[in-house]
Amino acid sequence: ISLVEKYIEEKLLDWIPGFNMTTFTMSLQQHKDEMAGDIFDMLLTFTDFLAFKEMFLDYRAEKEGRSLDLSSGLVVTSLTKSSLPSS
């Protein structure tokens, strides 16, 4: 796995002279509120090949209709005081 991660970093260095994965990751963390969650997650997985691979396999499974859908069994309940019934 570290060979794949190293390869990705080397290719990024070829395309972006002076590229530094640590600096890139820190910059992502600093600007995470400025981008959509999915985009942030995808960019952050560049530092972890297994996470990157898993994310794309999950994406493909979802597009092919093979993903696990738990939405029918989940209920969202607010925990704020104003949403609780008065007694």
From TrEMBL:
Domain of life: Eukaryota
CC per GO annotation: centrosome; cilium; mitochondrial intermembrane space; nucleus
Domain BART: residue ranges: 2-65
Alphabetical GO biological process terms: maintenance of protein location in nucleus
Compartments it resides in: Cytoplasm, Cytoskeleton, Cilium basal body; Cytoplasm, Cytoskeleton, Microtubule organizing center, Centrosome; Cytoplasm; Nucleus
InterPro entries assigned: ARL2BP, BART_dom, BART_sf
Keywords, comma-separated and alphabetical: Cell projection, Cilium, Cytoplasm, Cytoskeleton, Mitochondrion, Nucleus
One Pfam family named in its UniProt record: ARL2_Bind_BART
Biological function: Plays a role as an effector of the ADP-ribosylation factor-like protein 2, ARL2.
Family: Belongs to the ARL2BP family.
Protein name as catalogued: ADP-ribosylation factor-like protein 2-binding protein
Organism from which the protein derives: Psilopogon haemacephalus
